[in-house]
Task: inverse folding
């Protein structure tokens, strides 16, 4: 017998859908209720009936057309091309069909023209071809990764629809337990930075928020979130939510699949793409350094198929008693804060992930208004620090680069591939255009280039001004001085050249990647400068260099350990951080609506968290009765029992 909730959803649709739609079947595909009809043109006259159904059910509803009533792909392609303006920049090859899901993917130079006002064109395409359109933006820099992900998903769509339907039945089933409780367990990233993960449990569901690794530690158990001690089996977990694509938040997601997780991953589309890139890079680095692999490419692929992309601001059922809404976190492209609405409002949790409550060139500041918040889980990375003003930081960066160039030296900027690199590119580009900086070659290593291309794919997630540049046809990530380094052996020409240059390479904490190779070559020459532009986690090579170590042992290309003398100038400019500093965290709390009853501080070294807690008590950005909790890894907090 069918679950009563599922049966009730079917009944509501059957009684409310106009007969001319010619309903064929109703399926639960992931968080969506999908209605297959033979005649989608009922939407022209009767779209209010769909709105009505969605309102009664409080579910996300999607209309698809039964395969028997769809145009053949060739015909549909011709039809779509005839409907679109040539300005949309859609060619024949840009239209790809997914038979199983009944979707057509349309790649466009100007997606807005395929969407139309209020999605009018999308609706028209559905009605006239029977294919449900999805639009993707073409990018200036070609991305093999993005094409690879898309083609792979289409190839595996039989598998995708199968798992989506199994998720669907689990998500929409009845609430079984009458007693209520909400509890969280800190699995990683509490009183520390790295391996972020939180388990949220109700009587009905178990959810993981983030699943990262600690880049400063290379041996278990402190490298991984402590899911092994949390008392749950991976097959009991209903959903995994990823806030953003930094390794300390998403680096070990594929490992979950290796050990038996079969459920969905919720993330923004940009986070999905970036996270694949980072995980493949983790594998690449581990392989090159002869370290054991925590997972394989197979699990990364499986993760792609299990990921359900969620837009910022959309509310989605992720289990029978939890709804997820993402809010803008302002931290990196695609970053989100996760709002959990539990048991029809029984309890509400906001998890900030990493967040920036200040505008940058690249991104707008984080959201601060939410529907309801009982507990706020807030990052505290810079809880003890007031960062340099952004404009000052920019000026210092440009001045430091200019001095180094004048002395005939080279500048090495180790960057996290995601976010900071693109921000620095925008700053350098502006300075060169405005003649505040001499035009010298800026070598940008391959992975940063891939990431930049993903930024071009989702410009609507960038700051208003940067998005406006895209819309005006400008290319904010392109400049004649930018040289993309594709070939690893190019490093020798670059370091041996007499010419001054700027080198941007990963990883941002010198934990591996080309930045370490450049560092070995450039460190002994006092004319050169290394500029850190992001946080350095304890235990990383970056942190040791930043803290002033002058002799560093590192293996050379033959694996022999050599002592590197650090004579180059070392600068650290933390004003670019994608994290809020103490003042920004306090001002977020001051402006946040509504105020939380309880604040749980995480993602910070102990002194940073203590300092932030003290500052909150002293400056009272929230009412003085607000509870402040500072859990350690493996602590559990019971939020509410009813
Ligand atoms: Zn982050």
Result:
């Amino acid at each position: 017998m069918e679950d009563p909730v599922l049966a009730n959803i079917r009944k509501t649709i059957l009684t409310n859908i106009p007969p001319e739609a010619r309903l064929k079947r109703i399926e639960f595909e992931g968080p969506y209720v999908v209605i297959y009809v033979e005649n989608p043109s009922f939407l022209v006259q009767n779209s209010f009936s769909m709105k009505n159904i969605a309102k009664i059910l409080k579910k996300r509803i999607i209309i698809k057309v039964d395969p028997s009533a769809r145009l053949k792909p060739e015909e549909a392609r011709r039809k779509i091309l005839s409907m679109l303006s040539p300005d949309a920049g859609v060619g024949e090859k840009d239209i790809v069909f997914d038979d199983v899901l009944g979707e057509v993917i349309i790649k466009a130079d100007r997606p807005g023209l395929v969407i139309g006002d209020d999605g009018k064109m999308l609706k028209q395409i559905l009605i006239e071809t029977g294919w449900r359109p999805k639009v993707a933006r073409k990018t200036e820099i070609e991305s093999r990764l993005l094409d690879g992900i898309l083609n792979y998903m289409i190839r595996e769509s039989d598998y995708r629809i199968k798992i989506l339907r199994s998720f669907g039945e689990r998500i929409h089933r009845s609430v079984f337990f009458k007693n209520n409780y909400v509890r969280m367990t800190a699995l990683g990233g509490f009183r520390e930075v790295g391996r972020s993960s939180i388990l949220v449990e109700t009587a009905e569901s178990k959810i993981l928020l983030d699943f990262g690794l600690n880049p400063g530690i290379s041996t278990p158990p402190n490298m991984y979130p402590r899911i092994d001690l949390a008392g749950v089996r991976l097959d009991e977990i209903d959903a995994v939510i990823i806030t953003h694509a930094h390794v300390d938040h998403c680096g070990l997601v594929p490992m979950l699949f290796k050990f038996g997780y079969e459920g969905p991953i919720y993330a923004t589309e940009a986070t999905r793409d970036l996270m694949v890139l980072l995980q493949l890079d983790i594998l690449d680095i581990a392989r090159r350094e002869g370290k054991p692999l925590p997972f394989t490419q197979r699990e990364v692929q499986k993760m792609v198929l299990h990921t359900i992309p969620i837009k910022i601001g959309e509310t989605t059922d992720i289990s029978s008693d939890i709804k997820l809404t993402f809010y803008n976190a302002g931290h990196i492209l695609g970053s989100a804060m996760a709002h959990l609405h539990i048991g029809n409002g029984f309890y509400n949790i906001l998890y900030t992930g990493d967040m920036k409550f200040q505008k940058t060139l690249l991104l707008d500041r984080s959201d601060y208004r939410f529907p309801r918040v009982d507990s706020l889980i807030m990052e505290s990375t810079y809880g003890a620090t007031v960062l340099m003003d952004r404009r000052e930081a920019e000026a210092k960066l440009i001045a430091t680069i200019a001095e180094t160039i004048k002395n005939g030296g080279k500048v090495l900027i180790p960057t996290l591939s995601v976010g900071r690199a693109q921000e620095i590119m925008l700053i350098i580009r502006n300075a060169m255009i405005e003649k505040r900086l001499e035009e010298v070659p800026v070598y940008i290593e391959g992975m940063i280039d891939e990431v930049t291309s993903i930024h071009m794919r989702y410009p609507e997630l960038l700051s208003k001004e940067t998005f406006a540049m895209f819309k005006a046809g400008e290319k904010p990530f392109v400049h004649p001085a930018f040289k993309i380094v594709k070939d690893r052996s190019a490093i020798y020409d670059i370091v041996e050249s007499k010419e001054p240059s700027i080198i941007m390479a990963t990883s941002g904490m010198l934990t591996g990647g080309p930045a370490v190779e450049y560092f070995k070559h450039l460190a002994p020459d006092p004319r050169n400068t290394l500029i850190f532009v992001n946080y350095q986690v304890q235990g990383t090579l970056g942190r040791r260099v930043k803290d002033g170590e002058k002799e560093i042992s590192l293996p050379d290309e033959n694996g022999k350990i050599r002592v590197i003398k650090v004579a180059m100038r070392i600068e650290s400019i933390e004003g670019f951080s994608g994290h809020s500093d103490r003042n920004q965290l306090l001002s977020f709390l001051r402006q946040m609506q509504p105020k939380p009853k309880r604040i749980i501080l995480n993602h910070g070294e102990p002194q940073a968290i203590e300092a932030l807690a003290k500052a909150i008590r002293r400056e009272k950005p929230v009412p003085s009765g607000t509870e402040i909790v500072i859990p350690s890894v493996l602590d559990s907090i019971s939020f509410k029992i009813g």
About this structure: The first strand starts at residue 23 and ends at 29. Residues 244, 246, 249, 331, 354 surround zinc ion (CB under 6 Å). The domain at 70-138 is CATH 3.30.300.20 (GMP Synthetase; Chain A, domain 3). The chain has 20 helices and 28 strands.
